[in-house]
Amino acid sequence: MTLIPLAAVAGAAPASAATNGFKGMNWARVGDNFTTGTHVLEGLSSSDSYATVKAKATSMYTAMAAMGVNTVRLPINTQDVGTSWWSAYRGTIDAATAKGFKVILAYWEDGAASGGKITNTGAFNTMWSTVLSAYAANASVYFEVMNEPHGYSSADWRNFAASWLGSHTNAPKSRVLIAGTGYSQDLRDVCNDSRFSGTLLAYHYYAFFYGTKTYSQWLADFDTRLGGCASRAVMTEYGAQMDNGLNYGDANATDNFVRYLRAVTERERALGMGGVYWPAVGGKIASGKSWDPYSMYSRTSSGTNQTLTVRNNSGRDRVRYGWGL
């Protein structure tokens, strides 16, 4: 397939980015990160101590680093933070920063939210105050205010996020990520809001959001929703099926997942955008399976030693290509 020149896709291409230092993976809870309980991520146990969590996480990150990963995105919610589990869960963060990784801490909808909208602002702000007290001074830790704020209109979400910035002035703006509208799908309104000047922007882009497209249509649609925001955008979620032998190296593929991932990673690389793949392990469980079909790795363990095996080598290579590797 002939690649389309960047300037020919959907008019003028977005401005070049400076976020490609984020080469990441999401580490998720089995069953997805939307939960009214705590985030006991795949490979962890709720009975694990801080030392055990940190040892398991270090093993995970060592395996991920072999692929070129230097960033992990971790979920938090009001059930995690300030609890006994939080004391142990911090091992996932501390192991990452000790390894030289960046960490993105993202709030996932929980018992303090309903339908993509915060319902207990007090609990939400207390959570963030606790997190920032621990990590605002750590230059490797980033703060994604809310994952997929789909319950808000564009104006209401932007007002809420601006209020968060005003309430948490110890959060360095350069390390704050503001989600796009909807399911973090559209950055145009957020990017054009001067209240978020100096922040990063979180962009989610999946094939299941938009159905079937040609390769050229995927390129164009990606750019449209990104707007002129590439210089501040980090794709904190994107992913495709990795457990069924698809060939992501095939430029002439007719499979929608292959066309999608090839287009997304083409734009990511060309624009110099950061990308955090969904997921490394954990995530939504498909019918008849015990894993998320999008997961990059299968996992086995022995004590604190975690072994990750790539499910699809061509998928791994295409994600690395998007990172500029």
Q: What can you see in these coordinates?
A:
The protein has one domain: TIM Barrel (Alpha-Beta Barrel). The chain is 34% helix and 18% strand. The chain has helices at residues 50-65, 84-98, 121-135, 154-167, 181-184, 188-191, 207-210, 215-226, 256-271, 313-322; strands spanning 23-30, 71-76, 102-107, 141-144, 176-179, 200-204, 233-237, 274-283, 297-302, 305-310. The strands form two sheets. It has an eight-stranded parallel barrel with strand order 1-2-3-4-5-6-7-8. It starts with 22 loop residues before the first strand and ends with a helix.
Please describe the structure with a list of short key phrases separated by commas or semicolons:
34% helix, 325 residues, single chain, globular, eight-stranded parallel barrel, two-stranded antiparallel ribbon, TIM Barrel, alpha/beta, 18% strand
Structure, briefly:
The chain has helices spanning 50-65, 84-98, 121-135, 154-167, 181-184, 188-191, 207-210, 215-226, 256-271, 313-322; strands at residues 23-30, 71-76, 102-107, 141-144, 176-179, 200-204, 233-237, 274-283, 297-302, 305-310. Helices cover 34% and strands 18% of the residues.
